[in-house]
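Re: Re: ligand-bound prediction request (bumping)

Still looking for help on this. To restate: I need the protein modeled with flavin-adenine dinucleotide bound, output as structure tokens. Inputs repeated here so nobody has to scroll up.
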Amino acid sequence: MDFSLTEEHLMTERMVQNFTQKEILPVIKEYDRKQEPIPFALQRLGELGILGICIPVRYGGQGMDFISLGLACEGLEAADTSLRVAMSVHVGLCALTLLQWGSEEQKQKYLVPLASGQKLGCGVFTEPGMGSDVASMSTSAKRDGDFYILNGEKMWISLASKADYAMVTVRTNPGAARPSNRLSTFIVDLNMPGITRGDIHGKLGVRAGSTGWINFQDARVPVENRIGEEGEGFKITMSAFDHGRYTVASGAAGIVRAALEASVRYAKERTSFGKPIAEHQLIQEKIARMSQDYEIARLLYLRAGWLKNQGVRNTLETSFAKKFATEASFRAADDAIQIHGAYGYSDEYDVERYLRNARGAIIYEGSSEIQTLIQAGYALGERQEKPLRCEMPAYDPDYWQS
Ligand SMILES: Cc1cc2nc3c(=O)[nH]c(=O)nc-3n(C[C@H](O)[C@H](O)[C@H](O)COP(=O)(O)OP(=O)(O)OC[C@H]3O[C@@H](n4cnc5c(N)ncnc54)[C@H](O)[C@@H]3O)c2cc1C
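Reply:
Sorry for the wait, this slipped through. Here it is.
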């Protein structure tokens, strides 16, 4: 067993750290307060190749592996969750799902501009009346010759108003006996007629991010935009979550790290009862827990990333990583606020932003309750990996980098 990172991995960490320190950290507080995205952030992620980091070079990406993706997400979310959310939906839900399930023509047409950062992608599943129970979605697509006609509303969609392309799952076969066979997935150009979209305001966290709604009214999507077969939408959506959850898990490890670093800094400076608060054992207990949680969160996501590199299905391992890291990040941010005392309660320090940002990830990409059900299902033998028609291949540098 080899726990060391390669020079390429270390380079990714350094590159992300340079970017966030120079370009994001000086302005994040201002945009989080204004509740507006940093205007240049997504463009810079594209220019730096981060939006296509683990996509093969032949499809416009950087050809790096899944560990590099995880390290990039950790570094980005250590600065601000809005950056990692862009990775989760653009890379995780959209680009990697296209790489796994798309036809060669779809990859050339949509994946190349996504991976090279010319276009932005998102993942569109949740509806006003449905989130966890994916098979019950009601947005519909009816076949009409060479087109599908989409009708319905999607909600809580990250980058809804910013993205160019969307991986969209809808109901195509309402009569299918199994609810999970009723769905199909499409790659949709969001600028086509019949689609309107907008932002949701008043969110607790990810205030420098964009979350919104998308309405489909007789939107005519060509048949050639269907990903996979009709009725495969549930499986494709679950694959998308396997990719997306990995980015959420690795990103959340970044919040734990950021909360730990802020707490160590503050605890050494702040004094009470004649000594730095770092010397009080009850403060040390919180710092030790953050430090331990960071190690566990990182090991769990690195293992999931390693499995992805091997081309081994990793729904369970990714679920462990996602649930642990997101809950640990909220705990770490909460402890960090406590260590900062009253200052932690104001936005003079970053820790209150970490807490607000950490909360959402316990809900999205499969809530903690849904992760618990997944984990119990495997433990009880009620759930096993079934082979998919399209598996994500193992990471092969010769293929990915040529
Ligand atoms: C900031 C943010 C960004 C998001 N981005 C996206 C995005 O890009 N794309 C997208 O499609 N969606 C997105 N979502 C939506 C997100 O995926 C859903 O909110 C999530 O799937 C939960 O669905 P819900 O909110 O409808 O809750 P519900 O499914 O209605 O669940 C409500 C509560 O009941 C619990 N629950 C549900 N079923 C069970 C069960 N069987 N057993 C026990 N408890 C259960 C849930 O865990 C939750 O606590 C985003 C959400 C947020 C907050």
